[in-house]
Give the backbone structure.
Amino acid sequence: MSDVKVLCDQVRQTAFQVHAYLGHGHLEKVYENALAHRLQKAGLKVIQQQSLKVFDEDGTLIGDYLADLVVEDVLIVELKTAKSLAPEHEAQILGYLKASRFEHGLLINFGSPRFEIRKFIWEPK
């Protein structure tokens, strides 16, 4: 899928449907599995717990981390089950985008009765 905006909208709608069906109160892994399953059923490429390389500013590999979901090789999806999204969650997804050099990310919280989702774009300067 070439249009990231359309992809984000599809992930957002699917995540909302998962939240509406399951409600809040489950472990993060349950929501991860449900969202991955529904996105794959919709024909999207989804990798769970994908290892992403972290690079220093000169391109040197300095480590890696596990992304909850990577969709269509262009979108990192980080899931939370917190009472509400906090600044440290936003810092985490921005750090992941910057370090891995992905441009687009979604931060989704399934832990609140109110569905929360935020979109992030990292543009290297």
